[in-house]
Amino acid sequence: MDGNGRWAKERGLPRIEGHRQGVESVRDVVRTAGKIGVGYLTLYAFSAENWSRPRLEVSALMRLLEKYLHDEIDELNENNVRLEAIGCLKDLPERVQKQLQKTRQATAQNDGMVLVLALSYGSRREITDAVRDCARLVKEGKIAVSDINETLISNHLYTHSYPDPDLLIRTSGEMRISNFLLWQISYAELVVAPALWPDFRKDQFLGAISEYGRRDRRFGGI
Ligand code: FPP
Questions:
Q1: Where are the alpha helices (H) located in 73-122, listed in sequence order?
Q2: Which of the residues 4, 28, 50, 111 is marked catalytic?
Q3: Is residue 19 part of a domain?
Q4: What is the pLDDT of residues 63-92, one digit of tens each?
Q5: Out of 102, 115, 158, 222, which could bridge 86 as a Cys pair, Cβ 3.0 to 4.6 Å?
Q6: Quick one: which atom of ligand 1 is closest to the CA of 44?
């Protein structure tokens, strides 16, 4: 969800105003994705590297996140969306962790779209954790080295209960992956949208989905 800072700068506003507008895009995109039948939507809301931003920006983002998690429960339930999260969640401020727990519980019964927030998320860290888990299983004699395969590794990622993404959308024209779901996006289609995230609404989202629909997915075949 790139481009909040630039959106604010273009208007002479503080960066946090861009993040605030970004929350409106989150609402619009979540609602639209649920309506058109997307099964899983993962939003890269805060990376492991984002902790290095100025303290004031980090705390403002944490407050926005807490508020979103609190305010959105009714809307998520109305739209049958289940909220989940991946990442180093114990790094988050306690208030955010508690609200996350509440929102997860309050939406746990929904069986429509799963909205996954990636929070304090880093893909290399996730893969490293999975490798450690597998090494531990070998050391404890529970599996042999030859049992380590792609399925076993996938089963130890934070995303073990979700399918791999079909489509990765990056906004603001940036052509980087930035440590996001590196293992899981092996065969995802990439769409780079020029819009800054606060300007990325229903129409832009549907535009990315139709571009995906025009792609010919061969998964390495012909
Ligand atoms: C990247 O844009 C955006 C973020 C690091 C934060 C994204 C957060 C939100 C959209 C709001 C909170 C999230 C939820 C799910 C309620 P940037 O700040 O790097 O923008 P720039 O590249 O223009 O500087």
A1: 73-78, 94-107
A2: 50
A3: yes
A4: 999 999 999 999 999 999 999 999 999 999
A5: 158
A6: 7
